[in-house]
Design brief:
The complex is a heterodimer of chains A (125) and B (454). Chain A contains 4 helices and 6 strands; from the N terminus they run βββααββαβα. Chain A is α+β, with helices and mostly antiparallel strands and 125 residues long. The chains are: A alpha+beta (125), B alpha+beta (454).
């Protein structure tokens, strides 16, 4: 087992609906999805964001696209039109989540790294 | 199998014009949808119309139509836009002038209105209906009634379909949901109806509309694929090739930049969604748990096996109300001791607000480059940063109080730590807060008319 940041295993994108921020987490492989479904819990997510998420956290698993929809209630300072946050619409909340550390099998981490290389083969050109 | 190609031409007021011009020129789309309205836009447009009854629509529609109509009219591409905002009829009259002056007629403009619930708010409450706040649970709008400036229902595709049947070439709507701009043409083309028989097809239209409605956000914009995108500065806007069984290929304008693959489609499928089993739109409910995504060629993703449920009996109603003012300030500090300077500035500001006796409803101070985005989750390292900024934002009941944030941040320039760098002060802005609620569908009386332009 090894500690890695979520960014090694998944992609994420976030947005807003009023005071609710949602984070789509996309596992880089099917095995990683199986791991994340168990590793990410509402309690862990809420604890990671510390005081940023004032309300509840829900996680919706979508095995058909190896992804999780994570809903963070009361997390945007009242919503885009009245928030004091610089990031009014929660676009940074997904990338911020990718900084979270999880403990995963080294084989799984290797698998994700290989998948990344294939997915991102245009990267850095 | 019958196929209909539909493109997305705009995701917000201020989106880029060239990609949709390229789409009209180079692709074989039959329809292009344009969303110009964000949650706050309606309040702004209402205010414009109050000042001048001939305003209240998105003014961009005039230059856009001048550029697009000469391409779309001869090709028979139909355009559906919610740029009508608070005044779709006036927007249609302006487009009529464009058609006449460019001698593009005869053409037909469909005008869809009736989303404005503000005039009938009290009448609806009189019937015993309560506008409960979906975010906070507050039971009704009594507390904010005097401050309400807008109440617009997110309406569905019903009237868009009516006007397409009437032969409209351009359809201009008010606060129709972004999604309906795409669902309307698909239901019209395939003869899908709001009945049990077509539940999955309409839900497919809702889901496909959701995938493409934010223009470049599914073609490499705002994406984890940002480095893999080709010529991202010339990204094409998305096109859905939709089949009558509800499957679709998601692609983009031929020979354009950007990227479409299963990852960009997943990103957008999950974007701004709460429960993915119940993606609630006025025309239907998408269930994303059955979808299959497959890369079927360069920049081509097949979307299949879509499903969902029938449209809800209520519509989302966005009530906007005045709720004070926000003042902001931003100052950057150089090394040495950049973070320490920012901390000093925070203390300095808090002391100033105490001396002035300003009471903010809320005050927020962030260190730029350290915790502005990571907030409480940031682990702050005590190192010698090249530079750190401070951003202060305060919300207050009056404009005068909010002004103190801006003024005191300005004073940091001459009284703060050495090297304080300032830029240009930001203006105080009035806050229109949203009260998201529901309204029974039958109480929103949408209507449409056809305008013939010779």
């Amino acid at each position: 087992m090894k500690k890695v940041q979520l960014k090694e295993l998944a992609y994420a994108r976030s947005g807003d609906k009023g005071d609710v921020c949602n984070v789509g987490v996309m596992a880089k492989t099917k095995n990683v999805y199986g791991f994340l479904v168990k590793a990410l819990t509402p309690e862990k997510i809420k604890a990671y964001y510390k005081g940023m998420v004032k309300g509840g956290v829900e996680i919706y698993p979508l095995p058909n696209i190896d992804s999780l929809e994570i809903v963070l209630r009361q997390s945007l300072g009242g919503g885009a039109t009245c928030t004091l946050r610089f990031d009014q619409t929660g676009k940074s909340m997904g990338p911020v989540l990718l900084g979270m550390f999880v403990e995963a099998d080294e084989a799984l981490i290797d698998e994700a790294a290989k998948a990344s290389a294939a997915i991102e083969k245009g990267f850095g050109k | 199998m019958k196929q209909v190609n539909i493109g997305s031409g705009s995701a917000f007021w201020g989106d880029m014009l060239e990609p949709v011009v390229e789409m009209a020129e180079r692709s074989d789309v039959k329809y292009i949808g344009f969303d110009h309205l964000a949650e706050l836009t309606m309040a702004l447009l209402n205010r414009m119309q109050l000042k001048n009854p001939e305003m209240g629509y998105i003014p961009d529609i005039v230059p856009w139509m001048k550029k697009l109509l000469p391409i779309t009219a001869p090709k028979g591409i139909k355009m559906i836009t919610n740029a009508g905002g608070a005044n779709p009829l006036q927007a249609a009259l302006e487009v009529k002038k464009v058609i006449k002056s460019m001698k593009l007629g005869p053409m037909r403009i469909g005008v869809v209105s009736g989303d404005d619930v503000l005039p009938s708010l009290d009448e609806i409450r009189g019937q015993g209906f309560k506008f409960t706040n979906m975010d906070t649970g507050e039971e009704d709008i009594d507390r904010i009634r005097g401050d309400i400036v807008a109440a617009n229902a997110y309406t569905g595709a019903d009237e868009i379909i009516t006007e397409l049947r009437n032969g409209a070439d351009v359809i201009i709507t008010g606060r129709v949901s972004d999604n309906a701009l795409y669902v309307g043409p698909l239901m019209h083309e395939f003869g899908w109806e709001y009945t049990d028989e077509y539940v999955n097809q309409v839900a497919a239209a809702v889901t496909i509309g959701h995938i493409i409605e934010c223009s470049a956000c599914v073609t490499g914009g705002m994406s984890n694929m940002w480095k893999a995108s080709e010529r991202p500065w010339a990204s094409g806007f998305p096109i859905a090739e939709v089949f009558e069984n509800g499957d679709a290929i998601i692609t983009k304008t031929p020979d354009s930049g950007g990227i479409v693959n299963t990852w960009t489609v997943k990103e957008h499928l999950l974007y701004e969604v709460l429960d993915p089993h119940n993606y609630l739109m006025p025309d239907g409910i998408g269930d994303f748990s059955t979808i299959k995504l497959n890369d079927v060629g360069p920049n081509r993703v097949k979307v299949s096996n879509l499903s969902g449920k029938k449209r809800p009996d209520t519509l989302k109603l966005c009530i906007g109300y005045r709720d004070g003012y926000i003042g902001e300030g931003m100052v950057l500090f150089p090394a040495p001791d950049a973070l320490e300077k920012a901390r000093f500035a925070e203390k300095w500001l808090r002391e100033r607000f105490k001396i002035l006796g300003v009471e903010f409803e809320e005050l927020r101070i962030d260190y730029i480059g350290v915790n502005t985005l990571h907030g409480e989750a940031a682990e702050i390292e005590d190192k010698d940063y090249n530079e750190v900024g401070i951003r202060v934002a305060g919300k207050a009941g009056t404009r005068q109080e909010a002004e103190t944030v801006r003024r005191e941040a300005t004073h940091l320039w001459t009284q703060g730590p050495i090297g304080s760098s300032f830029g240009t002060p930001m203006n105080v802005r009035p806050v229109i807060k949203l009260w998201p609620t529901l309204v029974p569908r039958e109480l929103v009386r949408t209507e449409s008319q056809l305008m013939e332009v010779k």
